[in-house]
């Protein structure tokens, strides 16, 4: 665990923890960038050759947009297709692109879920190391645990169930179907406005800059998870850089150091 910014001494105890899901706890969707990038290049370039400048623009956008609702990424795609004008027959509707992306991504995700259901794979094969033990420790400490994800809500709930961890969460919030609303912002607003929690009473844990930036906005504790989704443990340097720039108070690659994280949180 790497401390980037020291927490304020004498802060109130943590009462709620908000997790991102994909890449923070679950790796069922590992490789999503490898689905989104070819889709974007294909749709923008159309029948024309894909050039280096386009590859760079798409790669940079995917990197900086990690963690937002998928529909916002697809809105950018629809606008970029129109801006380039290289694929005149392409749809203008971002929801069409979202459906196409989801169809392609779910080929791998559904295969992984089926492997778990058939006993070919174990849930642990798709969970960041130490995550179950960490969730169990938080529950024993009486902390309310929430999930907010940019993935469609029905899918997040199903994937949490397949992985055997759904019961740990007081509420699972994903992208609402057919809406542009940000689930992460909505849950944080609920914790502050409805649950009357002060910023430091909330810890936000995630591998995307969106949730880290939102945590800092409300004064919450921000733990960046720079996870290596293939190895399930250790630090991904690209994620680390992104999370540090977003304002994470500390960085971890996994939850095998659960005791240290709990101590850091004051639990």
Please sum up the structure shown:
With 267 residues, the chain is an alpha/beta fold. The protein contains ten helices and seven strands.
Molecular structure report:
This protein has 267 residues and is of the alpha/beta class. The chain has 2 domains: 2-27 and 127-265, Rossmann fold, CATH 3.40.50.1000; 33-117, no CATH class. The protein has 10 helices and 7 strands. The chain has helices spanning 33-45, 52-65, 70-84, 94-117, 131-140, 153-162, 183-194, 209-217, 237-246, 258-265; strands spanning 2-3, 16-19, 144-152, 171-175, 202-206, 221-225, 250-252. Strands 1-7-6-5-2-3-4 form a 7-stranded mixed sheet, with helices on both faces. The two termini are 16 Å apart. 41% of the residues are buried.
Q: Which key terms come to mind for this protein?
A:
single chain, 267 residues, alpha/beta, Rossmann fold, seven-stranded mixed β-sheet, 10 helices, globular
């Amino acid at each position: 665990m790497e401390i980037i910014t020291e927490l304020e001494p004498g802060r109130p105890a943590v009462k709620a923890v908000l997790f991102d899901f994909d890449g923070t706890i679950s790796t069922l969707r590992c490789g999503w960038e490898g689905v989104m990038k070819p889709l974007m290049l294909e749709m923008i370039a159309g029948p024309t050759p894909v050039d280096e400048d386009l590859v760079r623009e798409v790669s940079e956008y995917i990197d900086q947009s990690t963690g937002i609702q998928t529909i916002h990424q697809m809105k950018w795609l629809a606008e970029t297709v129109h801006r380039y004008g290289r694929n005149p027959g392409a749809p203008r509707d971002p929801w069409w692109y979202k459906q196409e992306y989801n169809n392609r991504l779910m080929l791998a995700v559904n295969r992984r879920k089926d492997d778990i259901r058939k006993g070919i794979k174990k849930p642990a094969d798709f969970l960041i190391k130490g995550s179950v033990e960490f969730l169990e420790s938080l529950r024993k400490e009486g902390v309310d645990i929430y999930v907010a994800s940019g993935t469609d809500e029905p899918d997040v709930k199903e994937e949490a169930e397949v992985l055997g961890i759904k019961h740990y969460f007081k509420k699972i919030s994903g992208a609402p179907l057919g809406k542009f609303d940000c689930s992460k912002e909505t849950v944080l607003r609920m914790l502050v406005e409805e649950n009357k929690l002060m910023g430091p009473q909330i810890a936000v844990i995630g591998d995307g800059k969106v949730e880290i930036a939102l945590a800092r906005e409300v004064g919450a504790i921000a733990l960046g998870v720079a996870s290596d989704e293939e190895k399930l443990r250790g630090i991904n340097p690209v994620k680390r850089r992104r999370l540090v720039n977003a304002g994470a108070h500390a960085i971890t690659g996994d939850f095998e150091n659960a005791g240290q994280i709990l101590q850091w949180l004051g639990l």
